[in-house]
Each structure stands twice: as C-alpha cells, then as structure tokens.
C-alpha cells in the first residue's frame, strides 16, 4: 500500500513537471514571447517597438534572445529614433525571475541612430528615467552601425563597452569614421576614440565623472587627450583640461604659435546640445595665451559661408610676448575680438 502511494505521488510530480515544461514551452514560443518582450522594453523606455520577425531564443547556458529588424519610434509619432538589423541579448536566469536588473551581454549589428529624435526622447525621459539602471556584466558590442545627424554621420566600425554599472569604472573604445556633407562635397575622416569614466545618476541628471578621453583623428578634427567631467540633463555641461597633439591644419592659424607643437587647453561648455553650446576655451603654448568664447553652430555656419566680415562669430583675446605676423616681428602683442563689434 505504501509503495502504491509513493508511485501515485511520483506520478503526480511527474505530471506537474511535464505540465510546467509544456506551459514554459508555450510561453517561450517566439510568436508569444516577442510581443511580451517588446511590451516590457517599450514600457520601460517610453518607445514604440516593432520587429520584422519573431524573436529567436536559446536557454543554454543561460537565456539568450535575438531580435531582427528592430524599429523604435516615439509613441504617437512616426519619427524613427532607432533601427537595428540584429540585436542579441544574453541575461541570467535570476533576471527573468524578478531578480536584480542584470544583463550578461548585448551585441548590436547594423544599427542606425537618428540624433534629432534621440535628443527629443532624452529630453522627454530625463525627469522620469528610472533611478536604477540595468547592470551590463560582460559589456556591449556594436558593429557596422551609424549615428545620423544633420548633414553629418558617425560610421561605427566597432564599439566596445567593457561593462556598465552605476558608480563603477568602465571603458569605451570606438573605431570608425566621421562623414560630413558640405557644399564642396563629402568628407570622410577616420577616428579612434577611447573613454574611461564612472557613470552615476541623481537629480534627473547623468554624470560622467571622472572622465578621461583620447581622440586620434585627422584635421579638421583634433588629436587630443583630456580629463574632466560631463553632466547630461535638460542642459548639458562639461569641462575638460588636456592637450592638443598639434593644431589642426584646417583651423585658422594662431599668431605666435607653432602648429606642429602640442598646445595645452581648458574648455567648458553648457547648452541644450553640442552644436548649440556656449563654449569657453583657454589655449596656451610657450609664451602665447588665447581665450575665446563661441557657439559651434555659429562658427560652422561662418566657415561654410562667404562672410562679409573676415572676423569669425566669436569673442576673445590673444596675448604673446613675441610674434611674427606677415614677416614683421612684434613684441608684447595683445589682440582682442568682439563678436558683436562693427566690422
């Protein structure tokens, strides 16, 4: 009788296990899993998401999801923010069962990010963004992707983020190209970027502090290394102290300096977005010092136009103990430029 009871209990347990496996299999069917997954991501991000086909998934050694043809738009708008050819996400079992928001790894290929829509979304989400962000244990890999701005693009050949966790050090490396369309045709500048930082969050702002970066690029982009901090909120602000490896050949020459030599700099900016920032910069090489204030978008428009005035839209001053200008040697030189002065 006791043996029979054990057999009945084992049969019931086996039946429950089979039922659980059947139910799990039903829930994990791609056509069922994909809408659940997109709804969860959409609710967390405030984006409307769609995919070109149901998700692929695997369960060993831990859950892994692959989405193709991902498209993200802001709700109520057809403005596309993000398109991804392939998104591969690996996450531990405890995350699926309500544990800490941890993602093992993310791989992205063939993505297109639209900067204008991204900027609008970030402004909308800044105040309501979650106080805790997911931890990315084994990093982020992005390949064959592009960031699209107004008449410019950043082609990402390879981007790697070592890991991501708030208040923990991380490293980002990027190799790619900056492409720009001008009235003189298209330009293509290869770049290599390395960033070391700690990311934290508080008071509806994301803070990168300390921030160390190294950029290697041809003129008109600079080659430099610097350290400082960056805060992203409704208004962005940053400060950097570093050194230009050399003065870019396509930048206006500075009197009294040697463009082949390194130049120390301090730069700070504040504004709603990079090109609209009010920038202040101090430059120094040997006995020559320069301080300038400008807005990048205004300077860019001046460089691409045929200005009536030879003076750029900036204000500043230059001091030099000794300068050679048009073959004339000058001592104790001071030059001041006022952006709103009469020509």
Overall average pLDDT: 79
Gyration radius, rounded? 27 Å
Element pattern in H and E: HHEEEEHEEHEEEEEEEEEEEHEE
Point out poorly predicted stretches. Answer: 2-11, 17-27
Number of strands: 19
Percent helix: 10-25%
Report the total helices: 5
Strand content: over 45%
Q: Write down the domain tally.
A: 2
Distance between the termini: 108 Å
Major sheet: 17 strands, mixed
Structural class by sheet pairing and helices: alpha+beta
Based on Cα principal axes, name the global outline.
elongated
Give me some keywords for this one.
343 residues, elongated, two-stranded parallel ribbon, 5 helices, disordered N terminus, single chain
Structure explained in plain terms:
This protein is α+β, with helices and mostly antiparallel strands. It has 2 domains: 28-214, no CATH class; 235-343, no CATH class. The chain is built from 5 helices and 19 strands. Strand 8 (140-148) and strand 9 (152-161) form a beta hairpin. Mean pLDDT is 79; it is low at 2-11 and 17-27.
